[in-house]
Predict the structure.
Amino acid sequence: MTPRTRELLQAALALPAGERADIAAVLLASLDEPAESDPRAVEQLDHVPGYGRIAIRPGVLAGKPCLRGHRIGVDMLVRLVAYGWSTEDIVDAYPQLEPDDVRQALLYAADLTAEWIYPRPEQA
C-alpha cells in the first residue's frame, strides 16, 4: 500500500458516512499512481490479509475486492444476499464458487462496515 493510499484510507475513516463517496473516488484514482519504489509497480493484493479468498487487483473489476481467481465482486455477492439469495442459490448459479467463498465475502463486507459512527462510550 502506498503512503498516499494509506493517507486517503485514514482520511476516509474520519469522515461522516455521507461524505465517503468523494474520498472513495480520490482513493480509487490513487490506485493508478505508481508505487514510490518502482514507477512500474501496480498495487495489488493477491489476498487481503485475514481473508485468503478475497483479492484486490487493479486490473480486475477496477480494483474492487473480488473472490481470488474469479471476476466476482464482493459487492455483487452482498447484493445477491440482500435480494434474498441463499448461499446455495449463489453456488448453484456460480458453480465455480464454494460456500466458504460466499461466507468470507459476507464477513469481509461486514468487517468493512464495522466502524463506530458515533463516538464510543468511554470505558469505565
